[in-house]
Write a structure and sequence with these properties.
single chain, 547 residues, alpha/beta, Rossmann fold, Trna Endonuclease, Chain: A, domain 1, 3 domains, five-stranded parallel beta sheet, 22 helices, 15% strand
Length: 547
């Protein structure tokens, strides 16, 4: 056993996940991988945003195939065991292969250049080969592929499975030059392409290979992305059904559960496979259940300025789209994953492509959107802080006052702030439809997202309410049901809330983990295009309940 060759590291890492409370069995991927190998499709690259289980699956594959460990105690308890019992040939692959497992996101001590990075990988591999094959004349200065060819010629049954995790990590380092990138692509090509010792090359990363391999160096790989390929999609991220099962475990193990099932959906759902299946961020779900708290787990590793990095490349091109997405309205975009890291990021489609690849936006049927509350909070933070966003920032900046005015039932102040929003330099001044008014309202209530779960056009009673504000932090806070009207009165808007029974939707949530004891306020906001006047009417629909 070596550092990279037939190491125990993947076994130990996967065993720890397997023994965890919130483990999800994705072992059926092994069957798909073996099918690909049988069909001579042995070059596979899976790209996903960070924290979507890429390393877990890489560890699982190395744990299953590597002869450096004995993993039957794990896999005989997983779904793949049934397949192995029905297919003896498949079962014969467990712990029978030489596996070279490299996590490319590891840097040597005080790494300052690409040479130090790649030398560590090459030297470690050569040391592993010399130790494992003492009778093969491998020289310390041999190229890795030359050493592997020597091993193969000494024993033509000697073949290797390569599990290469985070293959594109080095491209994100500041010290890497364009020449270094070309050299790295050359390294992977020389190591893997058309080599007789390769049984399987399985790579993971964030970025598609096509971005970096402009020629034929790595064209042997089939790429599987979230947006454009269905195969393997079920193995990355959690489905609704899987989260349901995890939530059942949570209720069994947690003495005082405080995370509602609907909260997991609001906070961490919102991604989609090519077939349209909904996908949750797995890391965030597990940490939320483990910590018994809904919180910002995935994006805590990258603050809002990471999102702003992409937005800032062409603010004017995407500002209006941001306003709509903040309001929960998907916007059309042509996502091209190969353009995700374009050096210029000059067009809106390039910017949105990059944000989809990195997981900041989700993509479905030609539209991009902010997937969930976890990401929405980061977009909100950006809007509140970045004055360069123009009218979007200006409207967000008054949102604290708007929420206070609403809770104080100060209808005149609400109408005054709406007039300010209308007078701000915004392309959404026409109010040709209520959807445009909806976008502005979403911006001027942005601060409310810190303490409310805001659902737009939620099904409530008969018809739909434009906005419902559910207290997310303080169960004694007032709930808000807001209805918008263009060329109708605020009184008509408020009357619609009553007539259609929207308050029933709110009261239906009283049975969830959070018990609402505050008032329920009905808010009608109207705009008259002839008089250019905003009006507001606020009424208590239900008095506060005692806790």
């Amino acid at each position: 056993m070596g550092i990279y060759l037939n190491s125990m590291a993947a076994y130990d890492a996967y065993k720890e996940i397997f023994e965890g409370t919130y483990f999800v069995d994705k072992s059926l991927m092994i069957e798909d991988i073996l099918t690909s190998m049988k069909n001579a499709e042995k070059y596979i690259c899976v790209t996903r945003p960070r924290r979507f289980g890429k390393s877990v699956m890489a560890n699982m594959l190395a744990c299953f195939f590597s002869r450096g460990c004995s993993s039957s105690a794990i896999f005989t308890n997983l779904k793949i065991a049934k397949i192995m019992s029905e297919n003896a040939e498949l079962g014969k692959n467990m712990n029978q292969h030489n596996v070279i497992h490299i996590s490319f996101n590891r840097l040597p001590r005080r790494c300052r250049n690409y040479g130090q990075y790649i030398d560590r990988i090459e030297n470690t591999l050569i040391c592993d080969f010399i130790e494992a094959y003492p009778n093969v004349p491998i020289h310390p200065d041999d190229a890795v592929w030359d050493a592997l060819i020597k091993i193969y010629h000494a024993d033509n049954t000697a073949r290797f499975i390569f599990i290469l995790d985070e293959w594109d990590f080095i491209f994100h380092r500041n010290f890497v030059t364009e020449q270094d990138k070309a050299d790295y692509i050359g390294f992977l090509s020389n190591l893997l392409k058309d080599m007789p010792y390769v049984s399987l090359a399985y790579m993971t990363g964030i970025l598609p290979i096509a971005k970096y391999s402009s020629g034929s160096e790595l064209n042997m790989f089939a790429e599987y992305t979230m947006a454009s390929e269905e195969l393997y999609s079920e193995f990355f991220g959690f489905t609704d059904t899987e989260v349901d099962r995890l939530y059942e475990k949570y209720l069994q193990h947690q003495l005082a559960p405080s995370v509602p099932r609907e909260g997991l959906r609001t906070w961490y759902d919102g991604y989609h496979t090519k077939s349209g299946e909904r996908v949750y961020n797995p890391r965030s779900v597990v940490l939320s259940l483990t910590n018994n708290n809904l919180g910002n787990y995935w994006t805590s590793a990258g603050p809002y300025d990471e999102i702003y990095y992409y937005v800032s490349h062409n603010i004017s091109a995407i500002r209006d789209d941001l306003a709509q997405m903040i309001a929960g309205i998907p916007v059309p975009a042509k996502v091209r994953e190969y353009a995700a890291v374009s050096l210029n990021l000059s067009t809106r489609d390039e910017i949105f492509s990059a944000m989809v690849v990195y997981g900041f936006l989700s993509y479905e049927n030609g539209y991009v959107m902010i997937p969930n509350k976890e990401l929405m909070d980061k977009f909100n933070e950006m809007l509140m802080k970045e004055a360069s966003l123009g009218y979007v920032h200006q409207l967000a900046a008054v949102s604290d006052r708007m929420l206070k005015a609403t809770l104080n039932r100060d209808s005149d102040k609400v109408a005054e702030i709406m007039k300010y929003a209308h007078d701000t330099e915004s392309p959404l001044l026409q109010y040709n439809s209520e959807s445009e008014l909806t976008v502005l309202v979403a911006l001027v209530y942005l601060a409310a997202r810190d303490s409310y779960r805001i659902e737009r056009e939620d099904k409530a009673g008969v018809g739909y309410a434009d906005f419902i504000f559910y207290p997310d932090v303080n169960p004694a806070a007032d709930g808000i049901i807001l209805e918008l009207k263009v060329d109708h009165s605020a009184e008509e808007a408020l009357e619609q809330i009553k007539e259609r029974g929207y308050v029933l939707k709110f009261q239906g949530r009283l049975g969830e983990a959070a018990k609402y004891t505050g008032r329920i306020l009905g808010v009608g906001i109207a705009y008259d295009r002839k008089t250019k006047k905003h009006t507001c009417k606020i009424e208590v629909l239900r008095a506060a309940l005692r806790s």
